[in-house]
Amino acid sequence: MTASLIPPGVPDREAPNGEHQHQPENIMSNDTKTNRPTHIAYCVREYQKSGAIESDWTRIGAAWQHRDGEGLDLQLEAFPVSGRVTLRANKPKPQA
Length: 96
What we know:
single chain
């Protein structure tokens, strides 16, 4: 089964010559049961507090690894002024 990149409810499109166009195969994450991103995108800001260097991590988006492992699709909700985006693997939180 291939996943469509077109949202549900949107009809398939026809080419100008009337032929049916097939939608490209979704080649993102191997996780077929959920749309859980494989990575989380953060903006990391370093600052000094009481003489020590501290970091503030702000979640700004998510990424999904391609099935072939050769790339990522990145979706950002914000873009850091510094231009630096840090990607970390999206690991499940430990059970309490």
